[in-house]
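> forwarded from #structure-qc
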């Protein structure tokens, strides 16, 4: 099975000159944790909820005065649409990331998440599954009351 078979094709994007507030609104309205940053259709970064928390909220900065280009992660780990899910899973686990933009001929075509891979039912090698489990542990659910 290939990345293109299970990737999400709806990807939220923003420009580097938009504000941190703009990207936070996109995340909130669309219930997404990451927005890809494009500059004239070229992938230049990614902004995650963590970027907003650590680079804006935690240091008490006005989100209207911070540009996306100043808080985005510039070194974006990507996968290719024609890669196998096993290769993509290895890339995600080696880089300890939960999601990656998907490229095809250098163009953004989708987003792949660990949840997509796990939910696909694809049979991964035991080694890859162990890496996934160690990087993204499944929390035990606990219930209060009867």
């Amino acid at each position: 099975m290939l990345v293109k078979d299970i990737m999400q094709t709806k990807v939220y994007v923003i420009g580097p000159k938009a504000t941190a507030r703009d990207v936070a609104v996109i995340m909130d309205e669309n219930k997404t944790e990451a927005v890809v940053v494009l500059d004239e259709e070229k992938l230049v970064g990614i902004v995650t909820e963590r970027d907003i928390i650590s680079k804006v909220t935690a240091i008490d900065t006005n989100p209207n005065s911070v540009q996306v280009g100043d808080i985005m992660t510039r070194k974006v780990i990507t996968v290719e649409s024609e890669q196998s899910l096993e290769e993509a899973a290895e890339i995600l686990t080696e880089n300890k990331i939960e999601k990656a933009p998907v490229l095809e001929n250098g163009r953004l075509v989708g987003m792949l998440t660990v949840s997509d891979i796990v939910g696909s039912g694809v049979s991964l090698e035991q080694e890859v599954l162990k890496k996934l489990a160690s990087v993204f542990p499944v929390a035990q659910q606990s219930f209060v009351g009867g």
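QC bot note: Residues 5 and 81 are 8 Å apart (CA to CA). The chain has seven helices and six strands.
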